């Protein structure tokens, strides 16, 4: 019995010591790096894959049939609008113009004869020599002659147009592409393959896409798609060699229609290409800036995640309180821009949030004796980093 009593007393002593230690651990306070939140300006960037196109990529096709007699364009050369690129055999088309001219002369002569006949009939009708039927017949013959003259003139215009089409010209200023057509090649207006392509590369268009959520965020920030186009800052272009293109671009088109397949919205940015560095058909990345003035900015080290939710510790009355926050979806890898959950003037634990527990006492919290003694500036709202 004595041994049992001794064991009981020993166990009670151990339990008392353990409870005392646990009580001490829950009431202990430690010092942590703190920061007082204030509003700051930030500009974040995000990259999006883009396809580069010339301002105009025009496929040049023949409008008449025949064999090529001259090739006047150098592949890859700069060409001007209206410059002759190819000449198609002109002989049959020149002959067609001469035939049309002869037809016009014949029609005009017939018209003049019909006019004179009508004038004579009118005089005879006035003297009551001929009947009303003969007069109307003469009038109809003159109208038919006029119509024939008009048709002949139209055929002459058409023949001259066809002759002009034998000179295949560039419709735009730009750079000529490659061509497989040489002298003697037979071409026609119905062929599907273009003779050559001309790209107007003086200004380049970069096409890219944003998700519906991103576009909604932009419209929320600027008010509408129209305001996004007016107010959105200039964008940059990162080329495939890793360099950033020296000229800034401007977003000039937002489609406003969500692609049902991808769930994205197409955008277009325009860049100057006076030095000809960019080529149509190339690939690049659009660097899109996001201006966030007057934002609450916190270090990512001040947060922890549970089930895709982000939390930070606010320091309230010297105690760390876990707070759920919403952050801007784009970040620089070091900071978060807080959209809700924290306000200017809040004090948070700026590092080691993953090691804390809700209710942990903060020895250096503003207003505490420790904070006043060890870091006098803490009372003034400055960040305390210990």
Q: Mind explaining what this structure looks like?
A:
- The protein is an alpha+beta fold and 386 residues long.
- It contains 6 helices and 20 strands.
- The strands form 4 sheets. Strands 3, 5, 8, 10, 11, 12, 13, 14, 15, 16, 17 and 18 form a 12-stranded antiparallel β-sheet that branches. It has a 4-stranded antiparallel β-sheet with strand order 7-6-4-9. The protein has a two-stranded parallel ribbon with strand order 1-20.
- A hairpin with a 2-residue loop joins strand 16 (309-316) and strand 17 (319-327).
- The chain is elongated and about 135 Å long.
- The relative contact order is 0.18.
The oligomeric state of the chains shown is single chain
Point out poorly predicted stretches: 14-26, 370-386
Give helix % range: 25-40%
Our measurement of the CA-to-CA distance between the termini, rounded to an integer number of angstroms, reads 57 Å
Largest sheet: 12 strands, antiparallel
Q: What percent strand?
A: 35-45%
Question: How many β strands by DSSP?
Answer: 20
Shape: elongated
Query: Cα-atom Rg, whole angstroms?
Result: 43 Å
Key descriptive features of the protein:
386 residues; single chain; alpha+beta; elongated
